[in-house]
Amino acid sequence: MSQLLGGKISLELVKPHRYRVHYHILRGEQNIGEIELDHIAWRSGEAELKIDIYDGEMHNHGYGTDAVTTLLAQAFLKMNLKRVYLRVQANNTNAVRCYEKAGFKKEGRLHRLTEWNTEEEIFLMGVTKTQFFKHNQLWAM
Which of 25, 32, 95, 116 is the most exposed place for a label (fewest CB within 10 A)? Predict the structure, then answer.
């Protein structure tokens, strides 16, 4: 299996597909989550990022940011993508902060009704290859 190394984590390729790459996020030997690029549009050079760190005790230690930046470096350097985007609930401040640390910018917002008839706000965020390397100069070397 293919593996990508970050500073705190490693990403282990689970199942490659033409329009999706899916990785387990490993801290040592422990699987702490998953991350993927989905809906890869090779012609336009875009993909949607999705991540899940399973255990709340693993949040706020930099594992998510490390996983996101490691996968973005792969997306921009090896896969030659031009832009990665995502959707995140506005009230998920930890996730928003993680994405901003990786270089994502808010590009828009959606409002929708939940099944409990309350309104939920979703941020649309994106980062281009140029923005990523400007923000993460370590990867640009």
Answer: 116
d(CA 88, CA 121): 9
Tokens representing 69 are 């930046």
The amino acid at residue 100 is E
pLDDT means per 10 residues, the chain with 141 residues, are 76 88 92 95 97 84 91 95 97 94 95 85 97 76 47
Burial category of 19 from C-beta neighbours within 10 Å (exposed 0-12, middle 13-18, buried 19 and up): exposed
Helices in the chain by DSSP H: which ranges? 63-77, 93-102, 129-135, 137-140
Structure tokens at 29: 């030997």
Tokens at residue 24, please?
């387990």
**What is the rounded distance in angstroms from the CA atom of residue 50 to the CA atom of residue 67?**
11
Question: Looking up tokens 């923000």, which residue turns up?
Answer: 135
Structural domains of the chain sorted by starting position, each given as residue range(s) with its CATH number in brackets: 3-140 (3.40.630.30)
**Do 74 and 55 form a contact (C-beta atoms < 8 A)?**
no
